[in-house]
Amino acid sequence: xxxxxxxxxxxxxxxxxxxxxxxxxxxxxxxxxxxxxxxxxxxxxxxxxxxxxxxxxxxxxxxxxxxxxxxxxxxxxxxxxxxxxxxxxxxxxxxxxxxxxxxxxxxxxxxxxxxxxxxxxxxxxxxxxxxxxxxxxxxx
Length: 140
Prior knowledge:
By secondary structure, the protein is an all-alpha fold.
């Protein structure tokens, strides 16, 4: 009996999804526990349906936790080497590691990795700042 081969993009996607979902789940669950139920109850009493209540009341309060967890997941996946190497999927970190001695290949890949990570952190910081300013203005 031969087991099916598990490799490539979809295998890496499945493994990394299962491995990193707690990074988003735990902050979102903590935020949901801290949310007062009176906000949802008020929206429901005023005639909002379940989906409208979720979209207008719950989701805006979860955006910070979702963004923070998403940033952690993205940075972890960007730097992961072991799982994707075992599943034979090429990533920037594998290319950098495999070409350590060939600077003409490793240096541009490392630069791409650094620029991508710094860009994501900057975008996340800007979005967080916008959310804080929006809430402090009483618009959120």
